[in-house]
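dumping these here so i dont lose them again. two proteins, back to back, each one seq then structure tokens. dont judge the mess
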Amino acid sequence: MDLYYHPLARQSQKTLIALYEKQVSFYPHIIDLNNPFSRRNLQQLSPSNQLPLFRIQTGEYFSDASIIIEYLDNYISSGTQLIPIEKSQALYVRLYDRLCDNELDKTIDDWIAATKDVNQLYAKQLEKKLLSLLTRFDQRLAEHHWVCGDSFTLADCAFIPCLKALEDKLHLLDYQNIGRYWIQSKLRGSVSQVIEEIELTLANHDQSEQRAHT
């Protein structure tokens, strides 16, 4: 199996966490969409030009992180069960996975972009929405060890990359329950592996920039 991804892309991080949780052996292919050659190679594999892209043994490709994880959970018996077998539990896991992807993830991108813009009023509106979403998760985590209960699930795979993106921008530890959750998440093997790859990629990027200016 092959994964085409970028370590700094949150949907790629979500997929990587799941792959490590499932203890899946795969071939990693880092794709830099800012590089024309790299982007052209991806287009030859998938017209959608979306990351992550996952190739299974049959030669089929999946280009949506949640679908990739659902495939892994259905066909890989090792590691963590990321979508509960019990239907009502699975429903909540999918609900919070969608909330992360469709609301939280998008709001983070819009807020970060708006803070660089001259429209500070819009940035404040987005920040208010972002803090409201985090409060919702904080309240939920008051009653749950992980997002959807005692077990690590797809919802956590989606939520953790969002927190990583906000780590240097908000005081996550000011949220009592999110703070506890974030500390325990970073101690989990799958998450620490992804964070290590993020930090290595950022360090290499900084070194490349320094060489370019010397």
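---- next one ----
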Amino acid sequence: MQIYLPIAEVSVNAFLLLGIGGLVGILSGLFGVGGGFLITPLLFFAGIPPAVAVATSANQIVASSVSAVLAHIRRRTVDFRMGTVLLLGGLAGSACGVVVFNYMRSLGQIDLFVSLCYVVFLGAIGGLMFVESLRALRRSRRPGALPKRRKHGLVHTLPLKMKFRISGLYISAIPPIVVGFSVGVLSAVMGVGGGFIMVPAMIYLLGMPTKVVIGTSLFQIIFVTAFTTLLHATTNHTVDMALAVLLLVGGVVGAQFGSRIGARMRAEQLRILLALLVLAVCFKLGLDLVLTPTEIYSLDPEGIG
């Protein structure tokens, strides 16, 4: 069943979009990630223009993150003070990211720019995840090995220190602002929530407890991606609500299956599978960049005057 997407200006099979949303929903329930870093490349493969895929993916992340953060609030695993500091950096980063996005779009290079960003970040993150997962798998087979204690780093020596009671930290506000800013830029340019970078940064850089990290990350992601969506909708007009609804419906159903499957697998196995999936998507995007396209020439309606 073909459906016309008015903003993307393409006709796509509705069941294909539901399937993409369902697949990302399964991944979300299976691996505990928002899936924004995978849903955007999958939309590229389905023929959705990158500008629309980025803006609409950010919109989809807002809806999926709201329900998740409510559960964390009930369990009191959200550090609102840390989330607010991250949010300040995230909003500034999002505004800067949209400026960069609009500039690259005015040059006619936004498709290449977004694809290159995905190849670089997915390749780096997927590679690091794969190596870390292999190490964790080896450690799990040696129960007698004790983990090394982390020493205080630069984050504990910087000025402007604040006390974050729920996280049990007394650190400088500068690193959280920098982390939030970086994630805000990524959200605007790549259409991701940034959790795949923020969560490791909060654990290993800021030293936050794992049980508080997810809820605090989601709290920040909601506002940053909502702000990003608003900026894209008002400046670029690239948010396709018909596409977002189909992705949401598929995602809600897929998440239920993913959570059931994930409960039957070991954490180390799940991380290795996710790393391999990320690397596979990175490889496909990289391959598309170097192979000769089927259509050498294309028309840009915005460039006709």
